[in-house]
Amino acid sequence: MVVASMVLGSMILGSRSLQASDLNLTRISGTWQVDSATTDVLRSTVLPYKDYLLKIDGNKVRIERPDSILPVATLGLRVKPGRLLDEPMQFDLYDAQNNHVYQGIYRLNGSQLELCLAPYGKTAVDDNRPENFIPKTGDGATLVRLHWVRR
Question: How far apart, in whole angstroms, are the C-alpha atoms of residue 66 and residue 47?
Fold first, then answer.
């Protein structure tokens, strides 16, 4: 499945203390539309995924087809900063049983969101999170480009 952005430290907002992961979830919350996907350097036509919607609400991601209100999938979402300051922000998507974890990185640039996901079937135990946003031939990583639609 193709599909499916962080500040270090914490910040006080009202009476609630927000952790870095909370702030990052807030920054990427909303509805995003798939523009393109690239796997193994080759831009795929992604006809089945073009215009799909990703609705991020807190720690949940709902993936919808543009012609249906029924979700294709609903996944859990964990976001965290990179291990080093110059590393991209990291995320994990997981199913309800937490059996399948899709590792990825993301970056937010205005109304554009880029996700780079490890190959399908790789798990957190495998530690196959992409290191950058340039999928290489044979690595199976997928780069998904989306634009913001609404909150």
Answer: 12
